[in-house]
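Write out the 3D structure for:
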Amino acid sequence: MDSITNIIGHNLENLRKTRGYSLDKAAELTGVSKAMLAQIEKGKSNPTVSTLWKIAMGLQVSFSYFMTENASIVKKVRMKDIEPFRDDSNQYRLFSLFPYHPEKKFEIYTLELDGKTEHFSEKHAGEEYVIVGEGSVAIVIGEDKYYLEKGDALSFTSNRDHLYINEGENLATLFVIIYYPE
């Protein structure tokens, strides 16, 4: 486990670079000198509570953001390593790429629907965002039917029953994000 000074430095540098900020820009936003920010990032200075608050407020993140040790900033998921959830007929497969996490409030799936197949989904909490990766599908929400082809996307509140239909002969692949606002 890294020291808290190194964790803070790593998180600050990662946040700054992710947002595309130079040290000058970060100093301007936070009111903390460029030299101090550089020392913190390199783990050569342990910031005071008031300095860390200034940085957090200036960069608009929580105070505790800087103290969270991330085992990995990057997470690679390989489809071939995921055991899918299947329906009884094995014509519908759901691969959980990024499972729900309460702090993030969303989950991401890849959904495969064989040709001439449909899948019924009961209403549930959240909002669904569906992007067609391959093939085409129809999605029925209540009384309305939406046709989607490769590259098309649809979002909807999933508080009504909905039906995924692959009317074609070939496999349809969908990417589904379910967001839980509360």
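The two ends are 33 Å apart (CA to CA).
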